[in-house]
Amino acid sequence: MDLLTHVLVAYLLTAGLVGLQPQYLAAGALAGGLPDADALFFPLARRFPILRHHGITHSLFGVTLVAVVGGVVAPHILPGSPLVYFAVMEVGGLAHILQDGFTQFSVPPLLPFSQRPLQMDADRAINFVTLAVSAVGFYLLLGVERNQVAFQVYYLTLWAFAGFFIAYFAIRLAGRIAIGRRLRALGRFHQPVPTGNPFVWLILNETNQGGRVRTSWARYVLGRGIVAGPFTVDGPIEPTAHEGLPRSEAEALEWSYPLARRASRVIESTYHFGEAYPEGAGGWVAVWYSLEFSAFGRSAGVRVRFPPAGGPVEVKSTFYRPRLRAI
Predict the structure, then answer these.
(1) Backbone angles phi and psi of 199, in degrees to 5
(2) Side-chain half-sphere of 101: how many Cα atoms within 13 Å?
(3) Domains in the chain: how many in total?
(4) Strand ranges (E), 16-128
(5) What is the model's pTM?
(6) Which of 75, 77, 81, 288 is buried most, with the most CB atoms less than 10 Å from its CB?
(7) Are both 201 and 171 inside the same structural domain?
(8) Which of 15, 157, 7, 21 is CA-nearest to residue 93?
(9) What is the DSSP string of 5-36?
(10) What is the CB neighbour count within 10 angstroms for residue 232?
C-alpha cells in the first residue's frame, strides 16, 4: 500500500473511533504513515537487518512502542488524553501492518520474537486506484471542505471514502478467496499473483532445483478461467561457460539469467519471467522482468543485450512492456 492510503485509512479510522477531534486525527494519521519511516534506516539495515523496510517498524512491537511514546509526548504538544492518543496511534499503526500484509509483500507482525510473515496476496503493494482515491481524499478533506462546508457535508464525505475502502478491500479479499479455491482444482499452480485489476490474476508455479529456477504462469480471469498460457521458462542461477553469441531464444535466456539476477534485487526477490528475441546480424536481447513489480503495463526488469559484433554483454536495469502482456 502507498503512503497516502496508509495515512488516509488511519485518518478515517480515527474519525470513526473518536470523532473529528483535530489532535487525535493528526496523531492517528501520523501513526498510519510512520512504519514507512524505516526507509530512513536504509544505511543501517545492511548491518542490522531488523531495521530493513517491512522490518521491526511493521510489527506489533514496533507500532505499540510508537503508540506508547505518542501517548506520553503528544499531550505536551496538543492537549488530550494520553490513553486516547495511545489508542488512536495503536490503531493507525495496526492498520498499516494489516494493509501491507494484505498485499503480495509480507510483513513480520511478531518481530522480534518470530519471523513468521503475514501475506494475504490479495492486492499489489502499490495500486494506483487506491493512490488516486487517497490523493483526491486528502484534497477534499483537508483542502476544499475542511472548515469550508457544513459539518454534515464533511461527515458524509468521510463516510463516502470509508465506504470506498471497505468495498475495495472486500472485493479484493473475495477475489483472493475465489482464486485460492480454484488453484487447488488446477493443481499445477501454487501461487496467485494479484494484478491491478481485482478480477484478473496471474497464477504460477516456481521451483528451484539443481541450481536452476523454473517458472510457469498463466493469466486467470475470475468467471472465465485461464485466458492465456501457461508459459514456462527456466535458467541457471550461476553462469555457465559459453562462447560466441546465442543461437536461439533458449540460449539467450540461459546465458542472461544469472546476469539479470546479479544486476537486480527485484529479479532476485520477486516472481519473474524472461523473454528473448533476435537482433540483426546474429545479436540477441533477453529481458527478465518482475511479475509483481509493475504499473501501467510495464514491469521492473533487466535487459541483457548480446551485441551482434560481439564484445562485452550489455546489462541494464529497465522498465519493460512484456510481449506476453503478463502484467
Answers:
(1) -100, 0
(2) 18
(3) 2
(4) none
(5) 0.84
(6) 288
(7) no
(8) 7
(9) HHHHHHHHHHHHHH-S-HHHHHHHHHHHHGGG
(10) 13
Using CA atoms, how far residue 163 sits from 32, 122, 204, in Å, is 18, 19, 33
26-83 pLDDT tens trace: 999 999 999 988 877 777 767 777 778 788 899 999 999 999 999 999 999 999 999 9
Query: Position of cell 494520553?
Result: 82
Which uninterrupted H or E stretch holds 91? Answer: helix 82-101
Helix, strand, coil shares of the chain, percent, nearest 5, are: 50, 25, 30
- Residue in the structure block whose three cell numbers are 521451483: 207
- The answer to whether residues 157 and 200 belong to one domain is no
- Let me know how long the chain is: 327
The DSSP symbol for 210 reads: T
Long-range (24+ apart) CB contacts under 8 A made by 175-184 are 175/122, 175/199, 175/201, 175/222, 176/120, 176/121, 176/122, 178/222, 179/203, 179/220, 179/222, 182/220
